Amino acid sequence: MKDNVIVWFRQDLRIHDNPALYEACRSGQVIPVYILDDHAAGDWKMGAASRWWLHHSLIALNKSLGGNLRLFKGDPSLTIAQLAQETSASAVYWNRAYEPWRIKRDSNIKLEMQKQGYTVQSFNGSLLWEPWDITKQDGTHYKVFTPFYRKGCLNAPAPREPLPPIELDSIVPSSTPFDIDSLQLLPKIDWDSEFYQHWQPGETGAADTLSSFLNTGLAHYRDGRNYPAKPYISTLSPHLHFGEISPNQVWYASAHTALDTSSEDALDCFHSELGWREFSYYQLYYNPNLPEKNLQTKFDRFPWKTDSSSHLSAWQKGLTGYPIIDAGMRQLWKTGYMHNRVRMVVGSFLVKNLLLHWQHGARWFWDCLLDADLASNSASWQWVAGCGADAAPYFRIFNPVTQGEKFDSEGDYIRQYIPELSNIPNKYIHTPWELSTEELLQYGVVLGETYPAPIVDLKHSRNAALEALSSIKEA
Ligand SMILES: Cc1cc2nc3c(=O)[nH]c(=O)nc-3n(C[C@H](O)[C@H](O)[C@H](O)COP(=O)(O)OP(=O)(O)OC[C@H]3O[C@@H](n4cnc5c(N)ncnc54)[C@H](O)[C@@H]3O)c2cc1C
Fold first, then answer.
1. Using CA positions, which residue lies closest to atom 24 of ligand 1?
2. Spatial distance between the Cα atoms of 391 and 166, rounded to a whole number of angstroms
3. Domain-by-domain residue ranges, the chain?
4. Could you list the pLDDT tens digit for every one of the 475 residues in the chain?
5. How far apart are CA 184 and CA 153, in angstroms?
6. Side-chain-side CA neighbours of residue 32 (13 Å)
7. Whose CA is nearest to atom 44 of ligand 1?
8. Which atom of ligand 1 is nearest to 346's Cα?
9. Which of 7, 194, 205, 401 to pair with 455, CA 20 to 30 A apart?
């Protein structure tokens, strides 16, 4: 008779290429479990959009596990110890997670369970390279992306190839019903209705999304990825965040497709974006304060505005009067996602034109993004604000009008999310205020009524940002 092994699912909600599950299936009878732990997560417990995704992803995972996923809520150290006793398990396996609160919690659980005689093993199920495997020649860690990725990662041993499929005939049947509603993950207000049109959480949805990207997006990715109305990005981020697909599966599947279609150039670009994901985790691992503290401490003196409420609320609601900003913020609210180019532009606008602290933005994204990820969100906001490790220089201020004109020249993205501007001609779609009141009326727009007038002047706010920056330089 084989031993019982608890497999603790976390951000690896898949059965394929899941190292912990794979090893457990080889060595024993599997007891699969998911535990919602809002307590240890503290300030970074999952936001509303992530909870929606998790709800559906767990349903999909439970189906793949033949209805045998055990669900719990609370302190995992107690849950696992109790479950191990009840099921006479001899081992606990999980795939590693890298949030500081998880590292702390998991290390304690490992120690405690080992003391009690259990075998505890953790595996790499969500990164291409472990942070501690990528170091400079002098043993220190990288601070800048390009050398991290090109010298560090690409010269390290290649990422592990996806594991062979497993037989799931060794799962111990669950005696308790799968009560997903007990986790209370779905929003109480009806705000998620559009999510269903855009997303299919779960491993099948992840595989379909990857396959559609490989068929139609990858070859155009290098340039196409900058245009928010074009279908050349993968939209894999929530699937990757919840581990419904591994980065290894994505890395190797895209490499095979690129080889078949001679798209090596596009592949290099796509792989380097996966590299940014690795770099975000790397930064979080070496800077556990990344979500809360400026990496460049001189930004601690930055004179952020404190009377934030009206501008912040206009930004959150997509009512700033700058069409590309408003389209992005509305895309986020409606679909739980925002295109990367637009994330950078709305981030720059919040931090540089409105002079609001990047943490306001990071918090709002945390609640609204389906792919909200502590590593990528924190590292990206620090990058946008200019205070991160390898950040966009603070003086590089995205101009929302020129960004819109360059990357959405026909206004397709704007019209999709701001229907009240849909009749405005392309020439003015990014600058409706340049039309006269009569002309605007012709297109059904009354500035300040049907669509807001710009809430700040771009030139003045840019100068104010540069002045604020020079104040921290001189201090
Ligand atoms: C202010 C700001 C906040 C962000 N917050 C998050 C977040 O919470 N979660 C998140 O997953 N990404 C975040 N990103 C990074 C990026 O915008 C998204 O990963 C990307 O838009 C997801 O779309 P996609 O899957 O189509 O990406 P693709 O372009 O198809 O890229 C493939 C994968 O590579 C990874 N990736 C791509 N770009 C980046 C990047 N710049 N940084 C890290 N990983 C990247 C993602 O896992 C993505 O799914 C943020 C970016 C900014 C500017």
1. 235
2. 42
3. 3-125, 127-159+203-286, 297-474
4. 789 999 999 999 999 999 999 999 999 999 999 999 999 999 999 999 999 999 999 999 999 999 999 999 999 999 999 999 999 999 999 999 999 999 999 999 999 999 999 999 999 999 999 999 999 999 899 999 999 999 999 999 999 999 999 988 899 999 999 999 999 999 998 899 999 999 999 999 999 999 999 999 999 999 999 999 999 999 999 999 999 999 999 999 999 998 888 788 999 999 999 999 999 999 999 999 999 999 999 999 999 998 778 999 999 999 999 999 999 999 999 999 999 999 999 999 999 999 999 999 999 999 999 999 999 999 999 999 999 887 667 778 999 999 999 999 999 999 999 999 999 999 999 999 999 999 999 999 999 999 999 999 999 999 999 999 889 875 5
5. 40
6. 28
7. 277
8. 1
9. 194
Q: If you take atom 20 of ligand 1, which residue's CA is the nearest one?
A: 340
297-474: CATH number? 1.10.579.10
Centre a 10 Å sphere on the Cβ of residue 178 and count the other Cβ atoms it contains: 17
Residues with a known catalytic role: 273, 276, 304, 340, 358, 381
Q: Please give the structure tokens belonging to residue 150.
A: 């090109």
Classify domain 127-159+203-286 at the CATH class level.
mainly alpha
Report the C-alpha gap between 91 and 84 in whole angstroms: 8
DSSP state of 184: -
Nearest partner of 180 among 267, 68, 56, judged by Cα: 56
135 Cβ contact partners less than 8 Å away, ≥ 6 residues apart: 141, 142, 152
**CA separation, residue 324 to residues 129, 347, 388, 454 (Å):** 36, 12, 25, 12
Q: Which two tokens stand for residue 416?
A: 């999709």
Q: CA nearest 46: which of 188, 189, 242?
A: 242
Residue 330: Cβ within 10 Å count: 18
Pocket test for ligand 1, best of 380, 396, 398 (most atoms within 8 A of CB): 380
CATH, range 3-125: 3.40.50.620
Which residues form the pocket of ligand 1, taking CB atoms under 6 Å from any ligand atom? Answer: 225, 233-237, 240-241, 273-274, 276-277, 280, 340, 343-344, 347, 365, 369, 371-373, 376-377, 380-381, 384
Residue with tokens 């969100």: 377
List, in order, residues 6 or more apart from 327 with CB less than 8 Å away: 228, 318, 342, 408, 413, 414, 416, 417, 418
The CA distance from 128 to 108, in Å, is 25
